[in-house]
Amino acid sequence: MHRPLIIAHRGDPSRAVENSLEAFRLALSVPVDMIELDIRKSRDNELYVMHDERTGRTCTSDIHLDRSLSDDIAQVRLRNGESVPGLDDVLALVAGKAALNLEIKSEGAGALTAARLVGSGYRGAVLISSFKEREVLDAKRIAPAIPVAGIFDVFSPADVRAYRSRGYGIISLDRRTVTPDLIVALHEQSIKVYVWTVDEEEDMKQLAGWGVDGMYSNRPGLLLSAVDSL
Predict the structure, then answer these.
(1) What is 5-228's CATH superfamily?
(2) Minimal CA–CA distance to 91: which of 24, 141, 148, 155?
(3) How confident is the model over 63-86, as pLDDT tens digits?
Protein backbone atom coordinates (compact mmCIF):
# COMPACT_ATOMS: atom_id res chain seq x y z
CA MET A 1 0.00 0.00 0.00
CA HIS A 2 1.17 3.51 -0.83
CA ARG A 3 2.34 5.25 2.36
CA PRO A 4 0.84 8.73 2.85
CA LEU A 5 2.94 11.61 4.09
CA ILE A 6 2.71 12.34 7.82
CA ILE A 7 1.92 16.07 7.94
CA ALA A 8 2.06 17.83 11.32
CA HIS A 9 -0.78 20.36 11.43
CA ARG A 10 0.65 23.55 12.98
CA GLY A 11 3.43 21.44 14.44
CA ASP A 12 2.39 19.04 17.20
CA PRO A 13 -0.43 20.89 19.00
CA SER A 14 -1.30 17.76 20.98
CA ARG A 15 1.85 18.46 23.02
CA ALA A 16 2.56 22.19 22.64
CA VAL A 17 1.02 25.51 21.64
CA GLU A 18 0.18 25.37 17.94
CA ASN A 19 2.49 27.18 15.53
CA SER A 20 5.20 27.55 18.18
CA LEU A 21 8.83 26.59 17.77
CA GLU A 22 8.27 24.06 20.54
CA ALA A 23 5.46 22.46 18.51
CA PHE A 24 7.70 22.32 15.46
CA ARG A 25 10.58 20.75 17.42
CA LEU A 26 8.22 18.10 18.77
CA ALA A 27 6.90 17.39 15.27
CA LEU A 28 10.44 16.88 14.03
CA SER A 29 11.02 14.42 16.87
CA VAL A 30 8.06 12.20 15.84
CA PRO A 31 9.44 12.27 13.06
CA VAL A 32 7.10 13.68 10.41
CA ASP A 33 7.47 14.09 6.67
CA MET A 34 6.06 17.62 6.50
CA ILE A 35 5.12 20.45 8.86
CA GLU A 36 2.19 22.69 7.99
CA LEU A 37 2.13 26.22 9.39
CA ASP A 38 0.25 29.47 8.81
CA ILE A 39 1.86 32.63 7.45
CA ARG A 40 0.63 36.16 8.13
CA LYS A 41 2.25 39.49 7.39
CA SER A 42 2.47 42.48 9.68
CA ARG A 43 1.61 46.02 8.66
CA ASP A 44 5.29 46.58 7.87
CA ASN A 45 5.49 43.39 5.77
CA GLU A 46 7.30 41.09 8.17
CA LEU A 47 6.21 37.44 8.03
CA TYR A 48 4.92 35.65 11.15
CA VAL A 49 3.53 32.23 11.99
CA MET A 50 -0.03 32.57 13.30
CA HIS A 51 -3.33 31.00 12.27
CA ASP A 52 -5.83 33.57 13.53
CA GLU A 53 -5.99 37.25 12.61
CA ARG A 54 -5.89 38.04 16.31
CA THR A 55 -3.35 36.62 18.73
CA GLY A 56 -5.61 36.12 21.76
CA ARG A 57 -6.38 32.41 21.38
CA THR A 58 -2.75 31.26 21.53
CA CYS A 59 -1.08 34.26 23.19
CA THR A 60 -1.25 36.07 26.52
CA SER A 61 -2.23 39.36 24.84
CA ASP A 62 -4.63 40.10 22.01
CA ILE A 63 -3.68 42.20 18.99
CA HIS A 64 -4.65 42.10 15.32
CA LEU A 65 -1.45 40.74 13.81
CA ASP A 66 -2.02 41.90 10.23
CA ARG A 67 -2.65 45.48 11.39
CA SER A 68 0.27 45.61 13.83
CA LEU A 69 3.89 46.64 13.40
CA SER A 70 6.70 44.17 13.98
CA ASP A 71 7.88 46.12 17.04
CA ASP A 72 4.46 45.56 18.65
CA ILE A 73 4.36 41.88 17.67
CA ALA A 74 7.77 41.40 19.27
CA GLN A 75 6.19 42.19 22.65
CA VAL A 76 3.55 39.46 22.32
CA ARG A 77 4.15 36.08 23.95
CA LEU A 78 2.63 32.73 23.16
CA ARG A 79 1.09 30.89 26.11
CA ASN A 80 4.29 28.83 26.45
CA GLY A 81 6.34 32.02 26.87
CA GLU A 82 7.87 32.05 23.39
CA SER A 83 7.73 34.99 21.02
CA VAL A 84 5.50 34.73 17.96
CA PRO A 85 7.86 33.01 15.50
CA GLY A 86 8.79 34.58 12.22
CA LEU A 87 9.20 32.62 9.01
CA ASP A 88 12.97 32.98 9.31
CA ASP A 89 12.88 31.34 12.75
CA VAL A 90 11.12 28.30 11.31
CA LEU A 91 13.49 28.02 8.36
CA ALA A 92 16.45 28.08 10.74
CA LEU A 93 14.89 25.45 13.01
CA VAL A 94 13.65 23.01 10.39
CA ALA A 95 16.61 23.44 8.01
CA GLY A 96 15.36 20.79 5.59
CA LYS A 97 14.78 18.09 8.23
CA ALA A 98 11.14 17.91 7.09
CA ALA A 99 9.24 19.49 4.22
CA LEU A 100 7.38 22.73 4.99
CA ASN A 101 3.83 23.50 3.91
CA LEU A 102 3.34 27.26 4.23
CA GLU A 103 -0.35 28.17 4.27
CA ILE A 104 -0.77 31.81 3.29
CA LYS A 105 -3.38 33.57 5.42
CA SER A 106 -2.81 37.30 4.82
CA GLU A 107 -3.52 39.05 1.55
CA GLY A 108 -0.19 39.96 -0.02
CA ALA A 109 1.79 37.41 1.97
CA GLY A 110 2.14 34.92 -0.88
CA ALA A 111 4.57 37.00 -2.93
CA LEU A 112 6.45 38.09 0.21
CA THR A 113 6.84 34.49 1.33
CA ALA A 114 8.15 33.36 -2.05
CA ALA A 115 10.59 36.27 -2.17
CA ARG A 116 11.82 35.49 1.34
CA LEU A 117 12.40 31.84 0.45
CA VAL A 118 14.33 32.75 -2.68
CA GLY A 119 16.34 35.43 -0.89
CA SER A 120 17.20 33.14 2.03
CA GLY A 121 18.60 30.41 -0.20
CA TYR A 122 16.58 27.86 1.78
CA ARG A 123 17.31 24.39 0.40
CA GLY A 124 14.62 22.33 2.11
CA ALA A 125 11.44 21.12 0.42
CA VAL A 126 8.62 23.71 0.53
CA LEU A 127 4.98 23.80 -0.59
CA ILE A 128 3.05 27.09 -0.64
CA SER A 129 -0.70 26.67 -0.24
CA SER A 130 -3.77 28.79 0.39
CA PHE A 131 -7.54 29.06 0.20
CA LYS A 132 -6.81 32.30 -1.67
CA GLU A 133 -5.74 31.41 -5.22
CA ARG A 134 -4.36 34.89 -5.80
CA GLU A 135 -1.75 34.26 -3.11
CA VAL A 136 -0.43 31.02 -4.59
CA LEU A 137 -0.39 32.50 -8.10
CA ASP A 138 1.60 35.50 -6.82
CA ALA A 139 4.01 33.12 -5.08
CA LYS A 140 4.41 31.08 -8.27
CA ARG A 141 5.17 34.23 -10.25
CA ILE A 142 8.01 35.09 -7.86
CA ALA A 143 9.34 31.54 -7.41
CA PRO A 144 8.17 29.27 -10.23
CA ALA A 145 10.25 26.35 -8.93
CA ILE A 146 8.32 26.16 -5.64
CA PRO A 147 5.21 23.94 -5.89
CA VAL A 148 1.86 25.44 -4.90
CA ALA A 149 -1.53 24.02 -3.96
CA GLY A 150 -5.09 25.17 -3.42
CA ILE A 151 -7.02 24.37 -0.26
CA PHE A 152 -10.72 23.53 -0.44
CA ASP A 153 -13.56 22.81 1.97
CA VAL A 154 -15.65 21.39 -0.89
CA PHE A 155 -14.40 19.76 -4.09
CA SER A 156 -15.92 17.23 -6.50
CA PRO A 157 -14.76 15.04 -9.41
CA ALA A 158 -16.35 17.59 -11.75
CA ASP A 159 -13.82 20.20 -10.56
CA VAL A 160 -10.71 18.12 -11.21
CA ARG A 161 -9.96 18.88 -14.87
CA ALA A 162 -10.28 22.64 -14.42
CA TYR A 163 -7.94 22.50 -11.41
CA ARG A 164 -5.37 20.47 -13.33
CA SER A 165 -5.62 22.81 -16.33
CA ARG A 166 -4.38 25.64 -14.11
CA GLY A 167 -1.14 23.76 -13.55
CA TYR A 168 -1.64 22.32 -10.07
CA GLY A 169 -0.16 18.97 -9.08
CA ILE A 170 -1.17 18.95 -5.39
CA ILE A 171 -4.45 19.72 -3.61
CA SER A 172 -5.37 20.00 0.09
CA LEU A 173 -8.93 18.93 0.95
CA ASP A 174 -11.19 18.87 3.99
CA ARG A 175 -11.63 15.20 4.88
CA ARG A 176 -15.42 15.65 4.77
CA THR A 177 -15.32 16.28 1.01
CA VAL A 178 -13.01 13.35 0.22
CA THR A 179 -14.41 10.17 -1.34
CA PRO A 180 -12.72 7.21 -3.04
CA ASP A 181 -14.09 8.38 -6.40
CA LEU A 182 -12.64 11.86 -5.91
CA ILE A 183 -9.22 10.43 -5.07
CA VAL A 184 -9.31 8.28 -8.21
CA ALA A 185 -10.32 11.28 -10.35
CA LEU A 186 -7.48 13.41 -8.93
CA HIS A 187 -4.91 10.65 -9.32
CA GLU A 188 -5.98 10.12 -12.92
CA GLN A 189 -4.93 13.73 -13.51
CA SER A 190 -1.64 13.18 -11.61
CA ILE A 191 -2.73 15.37 -8.69
CA LYS A 192 -1.56 14.41 -5.19
CA VAL A 193 -4.22 14.51 -2.49
CA TYR A 194 -3.47 15.84 1.02
CA VAL A 195 -6.35 15.65 3.52
CA TRP A 196 -7.03 17.72 6.65
CA THR A 197 -7.52 17.48 9.58
CA VAL A 198 -7.34 13.80 10.54
CA ASP A 199 -7.12 13.13 14.28
CA GLU A 200 -8.94 9.81 14.78
CA GLU A 201 -7.18 6.50 14.15
CA GLU A 202 -10.16 4.99 12.33
CA ASP A 203 -10.20 7.88 9.84
CA MET A 204 -6.43 7.69 9.40
CA LYS A 205 -6.60 4.02 8.42
CA GLN A 206 -9.60 4.52 6.15
CA LEU A 207 -8.00 7.38 4.24
CA ALA A 208 -4.72 5.50 3.95
CA GLY A 209 -6.67 2.60 2.48
CA TRP A 210 -8.30 4.95 -0.01
CA GLY A 211 -4.84 5.93 -1.23
CA VAL A 212 -4.47 9.57 -0.16
CA ASP A 213 -0.99 10.99 -0.54
CA GLY A 214 -0.78 12.84 2.77
CA MET A 215 -2.74 13.56 5.94
CA TYR A 216 -2.61 16.59 8.20
CA SER A 217 -3.04 15.81 11.88
CA ASN A 218 -2.97 17.55 15.24
CA ARG A 219 -1.74 14.18 16.54
CA PRO A 220 1.16 13.37 14.23
CA GLY A 221 2.57 10.69 16.53
CA LEU A 222 -0.72 8.79 16.41
CA LEU A 223 -0.89 9.25 12.64
CA LEU A 224 2.58 7.79 12.21
CA SER A 225 1.68 4.79 14.36
CA ALA A 226 -1.60 4.23 12.54
CA VAL A 227 0.01 4.36 9.10
CA ASP A 228 2.93 2.15 10.10
CA SER A 229 0.53 -0.46 11.51
CA LEU A 230 -1.09 -1.06 8.13
Answers:
(1) Phosphatidylinositol (PI) phosphodiesterase (3.20.20.190)
(2) 24
(3) 999 999 999 999 999 999 999 999
